[in-house]
UniProtKB/TrEMBL annotation:
The gene is xsa. Keywords: Carbohydrate metabolism, Glycosidase, Hydrolase, Polysaccharide degradation, Xylan degradation. The keyword Cytoplasm does not apply. This is Alpha-N-arabinofuranosidase. Belongs to the glycosyl hydrolase 43 family. Pfam families: Glyco_hydro_43 (PF04616). The keyword Hydrolase applies.
């Protein structure tokens, strides 16, 4: 379906699940959808995929995005409204290229857009931009968040009103280059600096955000993902190790940490008893989609959970994606029903 002009009537009376496996937006290309309910609407903060004719490489150089749009909908089966461009790379003093997967949060009537981009040294950092409305426009801070690095920020608000930022992505996302605490620039290969197969996998990161939402209130911590025996998932376990696309949601008192396994193309999940983890691996949440990347968010709308994700149905090209959504179910025992996206 096509995004509609702002102010067009929502089809909120429709009873058919017309959104199932259909692109939410036909143009432009959209990916990495981070969805939230702010007030009485669903807001989606995706990447904006573009054809920039950068040759495909192992660092993801062909994902050469330059700006962000915000989308919203009144209900899951309603029309999607495109609120237009809300932030461009030219607006961000420290950012040079590759605006990858963003996320957003609301606090005290202000809206915060967290986004990764490469700086002038081609190092990914995470920036923040602020708006007085969920639809922006967002005004970026002059510098990235102090102490930030790598990609795919995701914000989780706990019941106590604390906000946690999760992030990280290996290979093109550069997380492996920060293993020692400083950026390792000894090799251009995205595979250098990884642990060997039997060592614990590289951990995604978490830090509680400061009251002002634009700084960390603590040093970043590792998010440890363990197997059923309590042992850290190892780097060689490509079916279960963290690759990118962290997301956290809480259901019935359980914290769910979900993420992409990258080269095995799944979204999997692990559970824990607090926002820092450790999280115990549980299983597959979303099977591989069309295209190399798999990236999602999970949001509750009224009493129903939804999975937002993307595939390449419209373009057939891995860097030109389209966002979609599906209902997501938790069983009584806390496990999540695996979604197998119907490939057209
Ligand atoms: O959209 C660019 C990158 O592709 C994201 O940051 C990753 O999660 C993957 O979806």
């Amino acid at each position: 379906r096509k995004p509609v002009e702002q102010d067009t009537q929502d089809r909120s009376d429709s009873t058919e699940l017309s959104y199932l496996n259909e692109p939410l937006v036909e143009s432009p290309y959209t990916a990495d959808p981070s969805a939230h309910v702010f007030g009485d609407r669903i807001y989606i903060y995706p990447s904006h995929d573009v054809e920039s004719h950068v040759e495909e490489d192992d660092t993801g150089g062909h994902f050469n995005m330059e700006d962000y749009h915000v989308y919203s909908m009144k209900s899951p089966d309603a029309e999607v409204v495109d609120h237009g461009k809300v932030l461009g790379v030219e607006d961000v003093p420290w950012a040079r290229r590759q605006m990858w997967a963003p996320d957003a949060a609301e606090k005290d009537g202000k809206y915060f857009l967290y986004f990764p981009a490469k700086d002038s040294s081609d190092i990914f950092r995470i920036g923040v931009a602020v708006a007085s409305r969920p639809t922006g426009p967002f005004k970026p801070k002059d510098k990235p968040i102090k102490g930030s690095f790598s990609i795919d920020p995701a914000v989780f608000k706990d019941d106590q009103g604390d906000y946690y930022l999760y992030w990280g992505g290996i290979w093109g996302g550069q997380l492996q280059k920060w293993r020692t605490g400083t950026y390792l620039s000894t090799s251009d290969s995205p595979y250098a600096d990884e642990p060997s197969d039997h060592e614990p996998a590289i951990a995604p990161k978490v830090a509680k955000l400061a009251e002002n939402m634009i700084e960390f209130s603590e040093a970043p911590r590792d998010v440890i993902i363990v197997d059923e025996g309590g042992e850290p998932i190892v780097a060689g376990d490509h079916d279960r190790r963290f690759f990118e696309a962290a997301w956290v949601h809480k259901h019935d008192g359980i914290y769910y940490f979900s993420y992409s396994t990258g080269d095995t193309h799944k979204i999997v999940y692990a559970t824990g008893s607090n926002p820092y983890g450790p999280f115990t691996y549980q299983g597959v949440l979303l099977e591989p989609v069309q295209g190399w990347t798999n990236h999602h968010s999970i949001v509750k709308v009224d009493d129903q959970w939804y999975l937002f994700y993307h595939d390449t149905q419209l373009s057939g090209k891995t860097h030109l994606r389209n966002i979609k959504m599906m209902p997501l179910e938790h069983r009584k025992d806390g496990s999540i029903v695996t979604i197998d996206p119907i490939i057209k």
